């Protein structure tokens, strides 16, 4: 299988899968089991990014990675906003295991200020948004530099979302049944 499990020990990251909690924009858990998987190509880039981050004195907190097609449909049904939620009829990079949502932590494990929260569907969540504090803008640029240097590309509307280039043409979609232990129950 092309999906590999991402563990804190192997990738030197913290994992907080927000869609397995009610701390997401739907207000309810989407996954019944918090798990973090990526396509092996994305996992290799994450490992490189984690090393770069450590050299900069920061660490990643992973908020979402592989997202089964069933979960994408649930998110779209709740909020069909194509700027922030991929239409499941076309598939998303998350459904291919090549996208990751993340933020940065300082050396004490505190989240850095990014100007908005994760999944905040607002113009201020966009890269290059006006009206951010100097610190938030610098933190976003640090995250951007690390992720692009490791082989990811950014999505303009979400400072937290990174994916491998040409995801839709290079990688297949996966469903929950692709996993040995389903995330959706």
UniProtKB/TrEMBL annotation:
Required cofactor(s): Zn(2+)
- Put simply, this protein is called D-alanyl-D-alanine dipeptidase
Active site positions, chain numbering: 158 (proton donor/acceptor)
Name of one Pfam family that matches = Peptidase_M15
Give the family this protein belongs to, as stated in its UniProt record. Answer: Belongs to the peptidase M15D family.
Keyword annotations from UniProtKB, A to Z: Cell wall biogenesis/degradation, Dipeptidase, Hydrolase, Metal-binding, Metalloprotease, Protease, Zinc
Q: GO MF terms on file?
A: D-Ala-D-Ala dipeptidase activity; metallopeptidase activity; zinc ion binding
The protein's enzyme class: hydrolase
- What is the free-text note on the cofactor? Binds 1 zinc ion per subunit.
* InterPro entries to which the protein is assigned, alphabetical: A_A_dipeptidase, Zn_M74/Hedgehog-like
Role of this protein? Catalyzes hydrolysis of the D-alanyl-D-alanine dipeptide.
Q: Where are the transmembrane segments?
A: none
GO-annotated biological processes: cell wall organization; proteolysis
EC numbers on record:
3.4.13.22
Q: Where, in this chain's numbering, is Zn(2+) bound? A: 94, 101, 161
Q: Which reaction does it catalyse?
A: D-alanyl-D-alanine + H2O = 2 D-alanine
Signal peptide from the UniProt entry: none
* Keyword Plastid among UniProt keywords: no
Instruction: Return the annotated site residues (Transition state stabilizer).
Output: 67
């Amino acid at each position: 299988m092309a999906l590999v499990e991402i563990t804190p020990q192997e990738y030197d990251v913290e994992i907080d899968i927000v869609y397995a909690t009610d701390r997401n924009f739907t207000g309810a858990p989407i996954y019944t089991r918090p798990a973090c998987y990526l396509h092996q190509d994305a996992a290799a880039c994450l490992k490189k990014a984690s090393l770069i981050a450590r050299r900069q004195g920061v660490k990643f907190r992973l908020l979402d990675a592989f997202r089964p097609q069933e979960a994408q449909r649930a998110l779209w049904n709740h909020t069909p906003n194509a700027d922030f939620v991929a239409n499941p009829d076309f598939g998303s990079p998350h459904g291919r295991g090549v996208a990751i949502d993340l933020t940065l932590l300082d050396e004490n494990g505190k989240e850095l200020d990014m100007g908005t929260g994760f999944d905040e569907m607002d113009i201020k969540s966009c890269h290059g948004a006006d009206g951010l504090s100097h610190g938030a803008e610098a933190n976003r640029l640090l995250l951007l530099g690390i992720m692009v240097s490791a082989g990811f590309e950014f999505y303009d509307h979400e400072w937290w979302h990174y994916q491998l280039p040409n995801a839709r043409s290079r990688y297949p979609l996966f469903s929950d049944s692709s996993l040995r232990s389903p995330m959706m129950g």
